[in-house]
Every structure is written in C-alpha cells, then in structure tokens.
Design a protein that fits this description.
With about 400 residues, the protein is of the alpha+beta class. Helices cover about 35% and strands about 15% of the residues. The strands form three sheets. Strands 1, 2, 3, 4, 5, 6, 7, 10 and 11 form a nine-stranded mixed sheet that branches. The protein has a four-stranded antiparallel sheet with strand order 12-14-16-15, with helices on one face.
Length: about 400
C-alpha cells in the first residue's frame, strides 16, 4: 500500500509540475474557446439561422474536407450518427457481423447494433491499442469461409461478415496499410472510426481518409468541439451525396413540398453548432502544437517514474495525442484503481480505459476472438489530463 501511495503521489507531482499549478481541478480534456467562437455563434443568433440550414454548415464541411485532404465531408449531430450512416451505406444488413475492437468506446458497437447487425470483437495491439491486424488475419483464416461471389461467412455462426471498423485509440493511428490489405483480401468494407484522431496522420495522410468512409467526433471532450457533432468523410461523390440525403430525413429538395423517398434520419448538424466548429477548426493547428508539447513533457517526466511507461505514437504516425496515457508495467486492477482514486482526490481527473465491450451485458453473447491483450490492458491504462490549455511554456 505504501508503494502504491508513493507512486500515486509521484504521478500527482509530475502532472502538477507540468501544469504549473499546485492546486485546482485538472480536467481530462476540456474545450478551449479562444478564437472566433463568440463572433460566429452571435452571427447565428443575430440572423436567426440556428438550425439545420445556414452558411456555417456548408463552410464547416468544406473546411473539414480541406483540413483532412478528403474529397467530401458531411456534418452530422454526433460521431455515432456518422458511423451509423457509414455502416448503412457500406451495405451492412440486419444479422450480419462487423469486426470491431473490444477495446473502444461503446458507441462504436452501438452504431452496429442500430443497423440490427452484430459486433464481432477482435483483439488489439499493445503498441498502438488499435486492431492487431496480424492476429486478426490469422483468426479470419480460421473462422472465415468465402463463397463464390467473394463474400466472407463466419463458419461458427453462419452469418456474413460484412465490414471492419478500426478505431484510432486516443488519437494514435493503427497500421492502416495492413488493415486495408486485410479488407481487400476478405472483401470487407473498411470504415475508420477516427472519432478521436482529427489531426493525426498515418504515413503523412489524415486518419479517416483511408477506408470507404471515415468518421469524426466533435463532442465537448474532443480536440475541437461543436458542442455535440460529428462528420462523415469519404472520397466518393455519390456516397457523400447519399450521406447528406439520408442525414437530412431523405427529403427531396423543393421550395415548399415535403417529399421523402426513403427512411431517413434527422442527423444534420445545426448551423449554430457548425459555427462553433468553424471557429474551433481555425485553432486546431495551434491545439495540435500545444498538445504535442504536453505529450513530450509527459514522456520526459515519466521516464524516471518506476512502474509506468508513457504511451507514444507509432514510428509510422503523427498522433494528435488526444488523450495521453501511462501504462502500468503489470496489469493490476487494484493498483490501477488506487492510483485513479489518489489522483482524482487530488483534483487530477484521470480515467481508466473503457470497459471492454464484450464484457458489457448487451454484448456478452457476441462472437469474438481470444482477447488476451485487451484483458491485460484493462488493468494497465490510466489516461492523464490532456487538454491544450494545460501546456505552459517553459515546462
């Protein structure tokens, strides 16, 4: 217990030194509004354009596409809605299976359930925390069966496996070339859950731009926020048009008539949220710079802390370091929770990684491969305060 308290005290001291503050609450990732947010939102209020029509929605889509070097971006109400539409447009049908990491936020699997499809849980790599493509390939060879038309079926369940949804955990890109090769080999659509990785690069290219679709989140705790919001990225013009159509209740454009040609969704981002997003996106390059300096400071300071290591970006990638994390040398839920208690009591709002999805009651019966790395990481990961405002010059 003394060793645990000592480690917790050291972690508190390291974080306080980096933040340049001996007291006060340090949130996990709070938003920063230091640009044109008030100006743009006020324009919406002054003009009355606060709902799903207005110039800021189109502007945000255009600027997101430019920032990520994606051909098209469609702004929606949140990242889960973005993933739901991307899955539907990828052809996911009721009863089919979609490969997804168990170590991810619950929304990744929930969007699959919205399609009445089945999450099929896969393990992750300890180095990236993203899907382990080598082991996943071995697993698919073991349980997969191809039909003459190229479709992949799960021998154990008899259900078609339609897609893979990789997730870039804490903003760290996984090996997308290997993942895309796997998707091509087995005829699986690849939909990137890039909710946490705006600004991250895989071999110089933005995450979210590799698969048939990529999705982003602009929740209040993300690197930029629209309050609540998300976006769909795609290189396909027709898919982008259909995504915009479906997310606008599938309404056929007309000056006054209300005609709809299919079941649509009221997922369009309101203009007032997009106004906030436009101002935030202007600040993202600065946020990325400050967050990288914060990560470098954490990495340097934790080199001398026994029993933990700092999670670094892969060699092939540039991470946005959305959430910084330390990894305990040994998986120990009791130790992890005691450190979480000590840091939170000190006003430092650290957090554990998500409960693996296959352990949640609604997903316990879903198919899965063996998940030893996921189980091991559960007792190791502690997320540290990571907002761009934490960094101070000269630390």
């Amino acid at each position: 217990m003394k060793d645990t308290q000592l480690l917790g005290s050291i972690i508190v001291d390291v974080i306080r030194q980096i933040a340049g503050s001996d007291s006060g609450i340090l949130s996990l990732h709070e938003p920063e509004f230091s640009g044109n947010e008030w100006l743009y939102v006020k324009e919406c209020l002054d003009t009355g354009w606060v709902s799903s029509a207005g110039r800021f929605v189109d502007r945000l889509e255009s600027e997101l596409a430019a920032f990520t070097n994606s051909r098209h971006a469609v702004a929606v109400v949140n990242g889960t809605a973005a993933l739901h539409i991307a899955l539907l447009l990828s052809g996911v049908k009721p009863g089919e299976e979609v490969i997804v990491p168990s170590l991810t936020f619950v929304a990744t699997a929930n969007a699959i359930a919205y399609c009445q499809a089945v999450p099929h849980f896969a393990d992750v790599s300890s180095s990236t925390l993203g899907l382990d493509t080598i082991r996943l390939g071995e697993y698919l060879r073991e349980i997969g069966e191809r039909t003459r038309d190229g479709a992949l079926y799960n021998r154990k369940t008899g259900k078609r496996i339609r897609a893979i949804v990789p997730m870039h955990t804490f903003g760290h890109p996984l090996d997308m070339e290997a993942l895309l090769d796997l998707g091509e080999q087995y005829g699986l659509a690849v939909i990137e859950d890039a909710a946490e990785s705006l600004g991250s690069l895989y071999k110089g290219k933005s995450t979210g731009t590799f698969g048939l679709f990529g999705i982003l989140s602009f929740n209040g705790n993300k690197i930029m926020t629209t309050g609540g919001g998300g976006a769909i990225l795609t290189q396909d013009k027709e898919m982008a048009a259909m995504a915009k159509h479906l997310t606008t209740t599938a309404k056929i454009p007309h000056s006054w008539a209300f005609e709809h040609d299919r079941v649509g969704y009221n997922y369009r981002m309101p203009n007032i949220n997009a106004a906030l997003g436009c101002a935030q996106l202007e600040k993202v390059p600065e946020f990325l710079t400050r967050k990288r300096r914060l990560a470098e400071a954490y990495e340097q300071r934790f080199l001398s802390v026994p029993g933990v290591s700092f999670l670094k970006e892969p060699d092939y990638a540039t991470s946005n370091y959305w959430l910084n994390a330390i990894i305990l040398d040994k998986s120990d839920l009791i130790l992890r929770d005691e450190i979480l208690r000590l840091t939170n009591e000190a006003g430092i709002l650290t957090r554990p990684v998500w409960t693996p999805l296959h352990q949640l009651p609604m997903y316990q019966q879903c198919p899965r491969m063996e998940l030893p790395v996921t189980a091991d990481l559960l007792g190791k990961i502690i997320n540290l305060p990571s907002g761009p405002s934490i960094f101070r010059e000269g630390i």
